[in-house]
Amino acid sequence: MGTDTSELNAARAALVEALVRTGDEDRDAFRTVYRLTSAKLFGICLRICADRQGAEDVLHDVYLTIWNRAGAYQPGRASPISWLATIARNRAIDWRRRQARTRAVGVEDAEAVPDGAPAQDDALLAVEAHARLHHCLEGIESRQRAAIRSAFFGGLTYAELAVQAAVPLGTMKSWVRRGLLALRGCLDGDA
């Protein structure tokens, strides 16, 4: 187990270094960030977009955003993969909302493609989620925890969450906001 942990720590350190160097407009570092994360970020985009072409387009936007915002990444505030996954998730949700506005057709018929993420990225996410985030999630109120999990890991919007929980939209937004504030307080306390 010690070797796995040290390998994960080394992978995380390499990704942090590549992100920091990308912030200095180092193209080789940016290629390293892409190589280390593209499969995982594509999986997130595909899961939320439920459309392969859309997920590819979103992934392109994700890496443009990473290139432009890497200088703002603060290693002490978030793990590198969490920071990158948040960008991917937000871009994918934005894409999905735009699609919903431009067409009335659902995404039920989308082609299902498995997430081809390397085992190293999966293990890194699992360690991050279960070691720190999971602990903090367990500490917040159950309705807030369920809403946050559905939103962040399932890609559901506030409106979808409200329908699922049979509560008004404002109530759902309040649950998520309060839960995120509590989660942030816990995560900041662990830093």
Number of strands: 0
CATH names the topology of the domain at 2-109 as: Rna Polymerase Sigma Factor, Chain: A
Q: What composes the largest sheet?
A: none
Write down the Rg: 17 Å
> Strand content of the residues, in percent?
under 5%
CATH class of the domain at 2-109: Mainly Alpha
Can you tell me the CATH architecture of the domain at 2-109?
A: Orthogonal Bundle
* Distance between the amino and carboxyl termini: 24 Å
**Helical content band:** over 70%
The whole-number mean of residue pLDDT values reads 81
Q: Look at the helices and sheets and give the structural class.
A: mainly alpha
Low confidence ranges: none
| Shape annotation | globular
- CATH evolutionary superfamily of the domain at 2-109: RNA polymerase sigma factor, region 2, helix turn helix motif
What is the N-to-C order of secondary-structure elements (H for helix, E for strand)? Answer: HHHHHHHH
Supply the number of helical segments: 8
